[in-house]
């Protein structure tokens, strides 16, 4: 059996659904190694069609093409890839070199696709290039070479994997006669080494150098002229050692993508810059959200005693207690006034706000023994402090010099207050009260003047009107804290004073706020979680902080989402640019396919490119965001004394990740288009 056998080969090109063009008609041929065959014929006779079929670029045919006994028409993709890598080398009329790769890289391309190690690749390519007289041109780009040199590079590329068959389509068609002769010498030498060389030519002169001339006319072989064989000689263009072929590695794909990107540097810098704007905006929005959040939380927690957690009754806990019928509800007596006023501020008035501030304001549910026992049992709770707070819509008043001053917020003092809550004067003792600055201002014109003055406090407690006369010991301020005490007129007295006030009116205090003291600050969060877990409301400062955080998070995500729209714009930009790149590189894609690149490899090269664009955009976006945050923070700090853009490594990482993912997704479509290109059409593309 001949090395290459063609039996009853017919090729039909579909024209319409019902019509097809019969391009090759019952072709019967057989070739041996060492032959230099010229296929000649009129334009349109079917030469290229035959070559494409022999080279495995087109597998749609009737009949048989047997190479070394194997029918290439029945090859699966993997076998066809191996066939292209190991058995066939192509030489094209227009050279089809990859413009952005060096001469050396053009020649090693086939081996790169086979994942042959770089040292072997270079050594083998240099060996072949040297034999073809291109020793001094390894690092040049194709456009720096003459036509003859380009064709020699293309020949080197075809030879480097030491194939059995070389298919050359008009190899001298673009060369002058002197250069043509040099190239023909080389082609003849190749055949002399025992390879089968089949070339298409229009030139009589070229045909005359071959050992066989096959003439084709209207798809039929009309003449097959055998001429004297070439003198076989050993070893020129023989590759010493062959290596097992694998597939294009990820790193090789990245390198190829990088080389291409370098070629179109300014374009890629512009796309990356475009993409980076979206990433930068998202990171800045997240940083701003975090900055504002941090600022608010810090401000709210500034004076809060970290040891103390707060619990209030809710309807849920109340009904739970009621359901436990066996639990006898005994109103709690007032605890001893805690010593050493010292802890947190800002918060006590805030206790009136809970999960649903409006609803909680009007509720005043007292704790029962079962509740208190339950809270006391929470791990790490060292002691409890029972307290009372209420909120009224103007029914509570302070009377001073015959004038009524309505206030909304009443509470007993606790260790949760700090000295920073006392604007003037001091914490109240037995028979004393604290009032807020605005009230005091209204009463005396100057808040400080109220200290030492007696006022009558009128409270409504569970439907009972309580009154008592007390001395103003100090002026309360909520400081920076956000909460009702910060914005509403308030009155505070000790729990003992409040108990006496109740007793004087025949009532017993029913505490509705419990402060839980942790054994150490680090356990406070666990206690807060346990309080919530048991169904009690926590401190309104915490609740408020959480509500603010939640609201800010929502705003931040909305803003980041709006900024994210620009990511879609950049995704579309990347998509467009990669589509353009596919069109620009159509010939290159054809070459890669012809030398054994799988669809997967092509996809990988393009996806690598979009991956790199995404990575660069992301890094650039992070760098710009970091720079703007730093500058922004310096400016804001100078004006407001605080920083507002809190960028974290997580945001940076998220930004880069988002950029890469979006870019890769955008790259998949053009990459698929590239992978699906028909090699014959791709090679023909101008
Ligand atoms: N994709 C195709 N669809 C339909 N007809 C085609 C297609 N490709 C080629 N043909 C037809 O098949 C015939 C053979 O074309 P082919 O390209 O093989 O000719 P050729 O001998 O190589 O011509 P040339 O020397 O001009 O390159 C022509 O009539 C051509 O119009």
Tell me briefly what this model is.
By secondary structure, the chain is α/β, with parallel strands linked by helices.
- Principal-axis shape: rod-shaped
CATH classification, class level of the largest domain? Alpha Beta
- Percent of residues in helices: 40-55%
Distance N to C terminus? 40 Å
Ligand inventory = adenosine-5'-triphosphate
Q: What is the CATH H-level superfamily of the largest domain?
A: P-loop containing nucleotide triphosphate hydrolases
The description of the largest β-sheet is: 6 strands, mixed
Helical stretch count? 21
CATH architecture of the largest domain: 3-Layer(aba) Sandwich
Oligomer: single chain
Low-confidence stretches: 324-362
Please state the structural category.
alpha/beta
On the 0 to 100 scale, the average pLDDT is 83
How are the SSEs ordered, and which strands pair?
Elements lengths: L3 E11 L5 E12 L4 E6 L5 H8 L7 E6 L2 E2 L5 H10 L1 E4 L11 H11 L4 H14 L15 H13 L5 E5 L7 H16 L3 E5 L3 H5 L3 E6 L2 E7 L23 H14 L1 H37 L6 E5 L2 H9 L33 H6 L6 H8 L4 E7 L1 E12 L2 E10 L9 E4 L6 E5 H8 L9 E8 L2 E13 L7 H4 L2 E4 L1 H10 L8 E6 L5 H10 L6 H45 L1 H9 L4 H42 L8 H28 L2 H6 L2
Parallel strand pairs: 3-8, 3-9, 6-7, 7-8, 14-19, 16-18
Antiparallel strand pairs: 1-2, 1-4, 4-5, 9-10, 11-20, 12-20, 13-14, 13-17, 15-18, 16-19, 17-18
Helix pairs in contact: 3-4, 3-5, 5-6, 8-19, 9-17, 9-19, 9-20, 17-20, 19-20
The structure holds adenosine-5'-triphosphate.
Adenosine-5'-triphosphate binds next to β2 and α1.
